[in-house]
TrEMBL record:
One GO term of the biological process aspect: putrescine biosynthetic process
Keyword Lipoprotein (UniProt): no
Every PKD domain range: 33-119
Keywords on record: Hydrolase, Signal
Gene Ontology MF term list: agmatine deiminase activity; protein-arginine deiminase activity
One Pfam short name: PAD_porph
Protein name, entry field: PKD domain-containing protein
PROSITE patterns: PKD (PS50093)
CDD domains: PKD
InterPro entries found in the cross-reference section: Ig-like_fold, Peptidyl-Arg-deiminase_porph, PKD/Chitinase_dom, PKD_dom, PKD_dom_sf
Keyword Repeat assigned: no
Signal peptide: 1-31
Length: 463
């Protein structure tokens, strides 16, 4: 038998090492190798440009785009910009390649809608009310700086999945694992058939504000993506929001739903719809110069009618003390049916007092404005206050979320106050089960159950 020399052994060893390294890298390159993309807008007028962004996963080193009806119609740029010059509805296809001659392709049918310049206004548009049938609820799981919300999130999850689907966005696998642990600790099942987990980047746990606004337009459910800038810097200029601002696009891509960009900074938490013809909002929020410099009430009213199809815009004004969102409407006025709105009322047992000229004035002015618009107003008394981690605040239960057969409201760990609020909510929503969940950490930070969640209307709603 021929004896191996040192030289032949070295060559053989290097060969097998190279083969092993190549195999490992090849497997890595193909791990989670998926094609995906988004567009900054999906409805444009003739002559407008659309910027496409590759959001594929896994290693890739070559891109091939096909743009039906677009100029150019083909591109090998990673993130191309395309002009559409002819009215119509067009497909978009992206094929991505990795270094091992493997590829993945994604096509979104009828992704881009092009209308005539100066025209193409929808013939009908409506925002479903929160109490209408829902497809799902979405939320963004708290990250590193918001871990104190996690126990309340887990309890919300365990309630929601009893009634309907729930989509949970997470930033990384560590956060997902921590979320699963929290759900288990609260007596739930992170593998519940109603839960879908999404690796979608986000910056905060308040998806009401940065998430989609769903509208039914000309018989089709669509997403509106209003600009988000972390509440006009109200919580500090170091609060990041770049990923939050992209969430509606990612949700639209997952749902294969058109996304329309609206170049106005605004949060869904400042929009209250009756599902028919009316929206209530706070001018102090949308008119904040840190959000929309130079914006006017007249323009805001016109935008509400254009984008939401409402004929009545009820605009209140004023900010509760300490509210860094500058007056989100979901803490001041809430529809419970097409014609009835609940507004809080200060009492002698609350921190805010009748006639104090502060929070009481905000509430009383809101109630008067809403009543003057022809709506019925019910007052929800603020019957006490609580202290949490050195901060004392009113136990105000307006920040509820309505789902398929249930209501979740903020709890203040005070059985007397919580039970009284539960009874009132049961009278507002007699066909739903009411759940009070203690979330003092969230309330101290400025919100509650409604702020943390984003409801998706049923796909069966087509008008």
């Amino acid at each position: 038998m021929k004896q191996k020399t040192k030289s032949s052994w070295y060559t053989s060893t290097c060969f097998y090492f190279l083969l092993l390294t190549t195999t490992i890298f090849s497997n890595f390159a193909n791990a989670a190798f998926r094609a995906n993309f988004t567009a900054d807008k999906t409805t444009v007028e003739v002559g407008e440009k659309v910027k496409f962004t590759d959001t594929s996963t896994g290693y890739r080193d070559w891109w091939e785009w096909e743009f039906q009806g677009g100029t150019p119609s083909y591109s090998e740029r990673r993130n191309p910009t395309v002009t559409y010059n002819t009215p119509g509805t067009y497909d978009v296809t992206l094929t991505v390649w990795n270094g091992y001659r493997r590829y993945r392709t994604k096509t979104i049918r009828n992704y881009i809608t092009v209308t005539e310049a100066g025209g193409g206004e929808p013939t009908s548009i409506r925002v479903p009310a929160e109490w209408e049938p829902q497809e799902a609820i979405w939320l963004q799981w708290p990250g590193r700086w918001e871990k104190v919300y996690e126990p309340a999130f887990a309890k919300m999850v365990n309630v929601i999945v009893q009634y309907q689907r729930l989509h949970i966005l997470y930033n990384n696998n560590t956060i997902r694992n921590e979320a699963r642990t929290a759900i288990l600790a609260a007596g739930g099942d992170p593998n519940h058939y109603n839960i879908t987990w999404h690796s979608i980047g986000n910056d905060n746990a308040w998806m009401r504000d940065n998430g989609p606004v769903y509208v039914v337009q000309d018989g089709e459910m669509r997403i509106q993506n209003w600009e988000f800038d972390a509440w006009g810097g109200g919580f500090g200029n170091n609060v990041t929001y770049t990923k939050d601002n992209q969430v509606p696009i990612a949700v639209g891509a997952y749902l294969n739903m058109p996304v329309d960009k609206v170049d106005v900074v605004h949060e869904r938490g400042n929009l209250e719809f009756n599902g028919k013809d009316t929206v209530i909002l706070n001018w102090s929020t949308i008119g904040d110069p840190n959000r929309n410099p130079g914006y006017t009430k007249a323009k805001a009213i016109a935008d509400m009618k254009k984008h939401f199809g409402v004929s009545k815009v009820v605009m209140i004004e004023g900010v509760h003390e300490g509210d860094l969102t500058k007056g989100h409407i979901d803490g001041i006025a809430r529809f419970i049916n097409e014609n009835t709105v609940v507004v809080p009322q200060c009492t002698q047992n609350s921190i805010c007092k009748p006639g104090d000229g502060k929070d009481d004035k905000v509430n009383e002015d809101a109630a008067a404005t809403i009543a003057a618009a022809g709506l019925n107003v019910i007052r929800m008394p603020v019957e006490g206050s609580v202290t949490f981690e050195g901060t004392t605040f009113d136990a105000e239960y307006m920040n509820w979320i309505v789902g398929n057969g249930f209501v979740i409201a903020v709890g203040f760990d005070n059985p007397t106050l919580d039970n009284a609020a539960k009874a009132r909510l049961e009278s507002y929503f007699p066909d739903r089960e009411v759940h009070i969940i203690e979330m003092l950490a969230s309330w101290k930070a400025g919100g509650g159950a409604h702020c943390h969640t984003n409801d998706q209307p049923s796909s069966l709603i087509t008008q």
